Each structure stands twice: as structure tokens, then as C-alpha cells.
Amino acid sequence: MARQSTATGLLLLAAVILGAAQPSVAEVNRIVLRVNDRIATLYDYEKIKQERIRSLSRSDLSEEQRQRQITDAGLETMRSLFDEMLLLSRADQLDVRIAPSELQEALERTKESFGIRTDEEYDEALRQSGMTRDSLKEQIENSMRIREVFGLEVYSEIDFQEEDLRRYYGSHPEEFRTTAAVALREVVVLESSGLDAAARRQLAAGLKEAIEAGAAEAKLSESQPAGSSTGWIELGWVEAGDLDPQLEAAIENLQPGAVSEPTEARGGLHLLQLVERREARLREFAEVREELEAAERERRFQKRLAEYMSKLEAEAFIVANPPPDAAGFRVERGGSEPLASDALAPAASAPQG
User: Where in the chain are the domains?
Assistant: First the structure.
């Protein structure tokens, strides 16, 4: 069982970074993409595309979403391959290298994250995913080199001051206003208990009295027929509209610690205890500063990344000869219309000078 779960975990990893499908033999070595000195063959493309499709087939997407993404698998595969080649080519130009010790540490962390504890589990997971130790190590190294490029040329360009955060906070108060909510727990006298309505109401009244008297849960259970009610159910924080209207009305004026009257709703008679009440308020800047900073950093990263990838693409020597299902993979960054050079025929952009 352990081997099966670890193999499944590494299969998911392979879906992201390599893939395991066998390509057609006829054009196995045909180059479908060149970026500067890096090339991708039809073999590379087909492996990644087929594993993307298998991953989608195992996903929790709706059938409509799954079919749409499978239809677009060729385009998305070529786009991700293109971006990876642009970034790795830039890593080559910057002479970005990963120390063997760092690479080994990253590999060990990857194995640990998938629950792989022995060499036998590792080799079995690799075998089932169609990978080798060298190919996995290469993909991890590529990911680390790309992160280094981001650090040197993308993240290093991201800068903002606290005044920027305060300005956003002041102009978007609706984003930082909490809604009123109550923390609740409940006991339900079950409609399915077999008791008639009068007996259930009598039992609910007795439970309410016992709860208000501070009876422990064990005592509550002792005082009622087996299977007639639930134990305490922790509902947590709920907002207006989360509960049945009858239940919302029952707790409207409760104070913390108080118990509602037995209220008929789905499943039986509900006794709700209000644990805590939280009023709507505007969260203070100090409370939201970290999430504001994280959101602003991500927004600026995405903007800078789009600009950076456009620059790499404009300066690279690119020859594209994609398969038919990936034609039109090159689009304006931030747009969806294919570039004319790729939509019509294999094309080369001017070499970097």
C-alpha cells in the first residue's frame, strides 16, 4: 500500500515536470521548437502532452472543463514548453548553476514530500512514472535554475513602499470589512429516531434544560434513548444566509452561552448554542498588512513576469514548427490571439544581437 501511494504521488509530480507517454515512431526526432541553442523534438512534445491529458483524466474537473482542457492540451503543452525553453536559455546566458549539494537537498525534499522513504519505493515510483533518476534530477535542476533567474531578473525589480499599501487600503475599504458572524454548536433530536412529535419535543425540552444547567455531553447522552439525538455538532463561524431561515430566527437575539428554543428544521429539532458573536467591522491596517503586501507582491510579480517574458521572446532566436494541434501557440503576452508568424507557418524571429 505504501509503494502504491508513493508511486501515485510521483506520477502526479511527473505530470507537472516530465510525463511518460511514448511518442509515434515516424517523426520522433523532428524538431518542433528551437529557442536560441535549445531544441525540443516531437518526442519531447508528445511525452508532455500525453501526460497532461492523463493528468486531466484523473482530475476532479467537471466533464465539460476536462474535455475543454484536453482539447487545448496541445496548445498548452507547447506554450509551457516554449516558456521553459526561454527561461532555461536565459539561465544558460547568465551561467546559472546549481551546486550538487543544493540539488541533492532539493531531491530529498521532493522524495519526502511524496512519502518516499526507501530506495526501493523511489525506484518503483520512478518505474511507474516512466522516469529515471537522472531525468527527475534534471527536471528538478531546471526548476531551480528557473527560480534563480526569477530571483535575479524578476523579483529583484519588484519594489514598493508602505505608503503604496496604505493608499490601496484606504481606497478599497470594502475588501477589508468583515461581516457579522456567530460561532455555533448544536444538538439535534433526530426526526429519524422513531419517536413521535410530542416525544421528540419533550426530549428536546429536557436537553435544553440540561444544557443550560451545564450538563456534560456524557450526561446528555445518558438522559436520552439511544439513537434519538446527535452529540454536540460544532458548526463553527456562520454568517447571515448560511443557516435555514428558521434557525437564523431562533438565534437572532441569543447571547453567548445561551441555547435556542427547540426549532424544527432539516433532520429534526435543533438546539443551537451561541458560543461567540462577532460584529461587522473594518479590519485595521496592521491586521491586514501582511496579506496586503503578499497580494501586492504577487500582482507586481505577474506584471513584471509578463513584461520579462515578452522581452526574452523578442530577443530570442526562435524557430517554430509545431504539430497541427499546437499551431498558433505563440500569443501576445496577456492576450489570446496567435501571432501571425506562428499562425501561418514555421517562423524564425531575429537572433539576439
Answer: 2-153+316-348, 180-279
**Count of CB atoms situated within 10 Å of the CB of 30:** 13
Closest CA to 273 of 264, 289, 260: 260
Residue position matching grid coordinates 452561552? 257
**Neighbouring residues of 83: CB distance < 8 A, sequence distance ≥ 6:** 309
pLDDT tens, position by position, 153-189? 999 999 999 999 999 999 999 999 999 999 999 999 9
Quick: pLDDT tens for 114-155. 899 999 999 998 888 778 999 899 999 999 999 999 999 999
Strands ordered across the beta sheet of 268-278: 233-239, 181-190, 268-278, 263-265
What is the DSSP code (8-state) at residue 13?
H
E strand spans, 146-247: 177-178, 181-190, 233-239
pTM > 0.85: yes or no:
no
Amino acid at 197: A
- Hey, what's the torsion of the CAs at 332, 338, 341, 342, to 10 degrees? 120
CATH code that applies to domain 180-279: 3.10.50.40
Task: Considering the domain delimited by 2-153+316-348, tell me its CATH architecture.
Answer: Orthogonal Bundle (1.10)
**DSSP-derived secondary structure letter, 41:** E
Which residues, listed in sequence order, are joined to residue 264 by a DSSP beta bridge? 269
**Side chain identity at 111, as an amino acid letter?**
K
- Contact criterion met (CB below 8 Å) for 187 and 229: yes
What residue has cell string 416525544? 199
**Phi-psi domain of 277 (left: phi exceeds 0; alpha: psi -120 through 50; beta: other):** beta
Give every CB contact of residue 103 below 8 A, 6+ residues apart in sequence: 137, 140, 141, 144
